[in-house]
Amino acid sequence: VCSMKKNKMSKEQGCVLKAWEVTVRKTTQQAKKRANNIFGTVSVAPQTDDEATATEENDDETSNNRSSIGELYNAERVLPNGDYYTGQWYDSFPHGHGKYLWTDGCMYIGEWYNGKTMGKGKFGWPSGATYEGEFKSGYMDGIGTYTGPSGDTYRGQWVMNLKHGHGIKSYANGDVYDGEWRRGLQEAQGKYRWRDESYYIGEWKNGMICGKGTFIWTDGCRYDGFWDDGFPSGNGTFKWDDGSFYVGHWSQDPEEMNGTYYPSGNEENLEWDPKDVFNNLSEYKICSGERVPVLPSQKKLSVWNSSKRIEKPRRISVDGRVSVGLDRAFEKMNMWGSESGEGAADIDSTTRRDLDAEIMRLEAEGFIQSLKPSPVPMRLPRAGKKQGETISKGHRNYELMLNLQLGIRHAIGKQAPVVSLDLKHSAFDPKEKVWTRFPPEGTKYTPPHQSTEFKWKDYCVFRSLRKLFKVDPADYMLSICGDDALRELSSPGKSGSFFYLTNDDRYMIKTMKKSETKVLLRMLAAYYNHVRAFENTLVIRFYGLHCVKLTGTIQKKVRFVIMGNLFCSEYSVHRRFDLKGSSLGRTTDKPESEINSNTILKDLDLNFIFRLQKAWYQEFIREASVAGELIPSGACTPIGEFEDESAPRLSRADVDQLLSDTTRWASIRLGGNMPARAERTMRRNNCEFQLVGEPTGEYYEVVMIFGIIDILQDYDISKKLEHAYKSIQYDPTSISAVDPRLYSRRFRDFIFKVFTEDD
C-alpha cells in the first residue's frame, strides 16, 4: 500500500511539474510574440534544452556578478509571468531607460529608478490610449499629455494620476475646457467652450459651474452673475445684444425668482420669461470625459531575482513597493501564468489547484524562497461592538427621546417660507426662535402623544444651515425620527453632556449646558459665513439647536445640538484619537487588553505622523485633527481579531481604486475618506512627554477621517482657575486649559508636526 501511494504521488508531482513547465513555456512564447510585434524583432537562435540551461546559468552568473558589483548594464529578458523588459538594469530592478511590456498589452517606455517609473516616459494602453509626460513613484505626476481612445486629450499638470493645476482638456465632441483643476475636476477659474462657440468663463467647484461667472451665447446674449450647480443662482443680469437687460435674483424655484426688465426701446423682448434661460442652459452639458481603465500605478512588475537556485519571483508595483503578505493561491498562480487578456494560458481549475499545492509544497521545503513581509504588519485593536445603548421603553431617557423626535418632526415637516442662503444680520438674533406647546392630547398644529406635556424651542437660522449643507429634509427627519431608536453612548463626557447617535450613524445629538448654547449663538453669524466660504472646512457641522422644556413640577430645560457624526464612513475605523496638542494627562487609562476600535486614544498614544500628498497638504494647511485605518504599505494583512470580517480593509490597490473611481472620488474630501501614508514614530526613552516621536521609516497605507470638534468651550472663570491650580504643580505649557491664543498656537504647531507633505 505504501509503495502504491508513493508511486501515485510521484506521478501526480510529475504531472504538476510538467503542467508548470507547459504554462511557463506558453506565456514565454506569447510574450516573445508581443515583444516582436511592439518592440521590433528580437533575434533568438534555436537552442536545445541543455544549451538553454547552460545559457541561463551563464546569464544568471553574469547577472549576479554585475549586480554584486553594482554595475548598471543593459538587459533583455522575458520574465516568469510572461512580461517582457529590455533596457538598463541595476540590482534586480529596471533602472535608467527601458521598455516594459505587460502580457495584457500595456507598455511603458521611459525612465526608471530602482524599479519605479520616475522621470519622463510614455505609457500605452491596449485600447490605443497614451500618456506622455512626467512620472513620480509610478503615478502620472507633473506635466503630461493624455490622449484617450476616443480622441479626448488633456495637456497640463497632474498629481497622483489626477488632473491637478492648470490644464487644457479637448473633448472628442469638440468642447474645450481651459483652466484650473483640482483632484481630477474643474475648480476655481476656467473657461469652457462648447462646439457651437458659446462659452462660460468664471468660477468652478467640484467639476460644476459654481460661483461668479459669465455665459455668452453665439447670438450675443449674455448672463453675468452668480451660479450654482450649472445654473444662475443669486444676483445676476441677463443682457440682449440690443442693449436691453434684466436684473434680479435668480433661482430654479419660481417663488424665489424676482427682478426688473429694462428695455432699450426694442419691444420684442417684453414677453421674455426668465425660465427660458434655464431651459436653454439645460442643453449645455459639461462633458465628463473618458475614464482610464487601468492606472500606471496599478500595473505590477514581475522581477526575477536571478540565481542558480529556484526562487519565487517578486511582484512589485510600479511605484517600487514589493507585494508582500499572504497571497491567495489564485494570485500565486497568476504570477506564473499569463494575466487576463488575449492569449491567457488555458489552465483548468483542477490543474490550477494542483499547481497551487505544488508551489506551496516547494515553498515549505525551501525550494522556493518566500519573501518575508516587511515592515511587520501592525496588530490592530480588536473591533468593538456598535456604539451605544438603544433607548427603548423603560430607559431613563425614553420620554426625552420621544419629545426630541416629536419636536424635530414638527419643525421639519411644517410649512415654512422659502429658505434663502443670503441671510440678514437679524436672522442670527437669538430672539429668532419659535416656541411650540405639545400637550398629550394634541393641538391644531401638533399631534397627540403618550409623553408628558412639554414645550419645544427651534432656532430658525438652522434651516438655512441645513440647506447650505445640502441636507435633504426627508432624509434628515427619517434618520432622527424613523422607526429605529436613538442610541445613547455608554458614558457622558467630562462636561456632563450626554451623546446620542442615530441608527444610521449619520448624526450625533449632544445635550448642552446653557453656557455652551450662548457661545454657539454668539458665534453663529461668523460660523455661517465660514462654512459658506469654505465648503470643505474641517469644523464640525451643526444642523440644529433645540430646547425641550418639561412643564409641571419639574420645569426642566434640556438643550440639544445636532451635529454630523465625524466617523460615519464606509470604512471600518480601527483607531480614534482626540488630539489637543497638550501632554499632561493626555494618554488613555485603559490597559492594552481592553483597548478596542471604539476606544478614544489621546496625544501621547499617537505614534504616527501622517504624510499627505502635495495636493491634499496644500488644502490642509488652512486648518486641522485625526484618526485612521492602518494597514502596512505593500498590502500586508493586519494581524488581529475582527468581529466583522466583511468590513473593508485597505491595501495599495484599494488606494489606487479609490483614486481612479470617479464615483467614489466624490466621497473623498479634506478630512473625509482621505488616503495618506502613516509613518510610525518612536519616542525617546528619556522623553516621557515627547508629543511627536522620531520617524522610523515604517509606512502604512491609511484612509483618514478627521475634523475639528468641541469648539463651544469658553475660556471662562472655571478654566482660568483650573489653569492657575495646575500651573503650581506642572509645566504651564503642558496643561490643556490655557489662554485661547496660546491654545491655538500650540495646537497648530502640534498638528503641523503630525501632518506633513509626502515627499
TrEMBL record:
It holds the Pfam family PIP5K. Residues 48-70 are annotated as: Disordered. CDD domains: PIPKc_AtPIP5K_like (cd17302). PROSITE patterns: PIPK. Residues 390-755 form the PIPK domain. Signal peptide: none annotated. Residues 48-62 have a biased composition (Acidic residues). Keywords: ATP-binding, Kinase, Nucleotide-binding, Repeat, Transferase. InterPro entries: MORN (IPR003409), PIno-4-P-5_kinase_pln (IPR017163), PInositol-4-P-4/5-kinase_C_sf (IPR027483), PInositol-4-P-4/5-kinase_core (IPR002498), PInositol-4-P-5-kinase_N (IPR027484), PInositol-4/5-P-5/4-kinase (IPR023610). Its EC number is 2.7.1.68. The keyword Nucleotide-binding applies. SMART domains: MORN, PIPKc. This is 1-phosphatidylinositol-4-phosphate 5-kinase. It comes from Brassica napus.
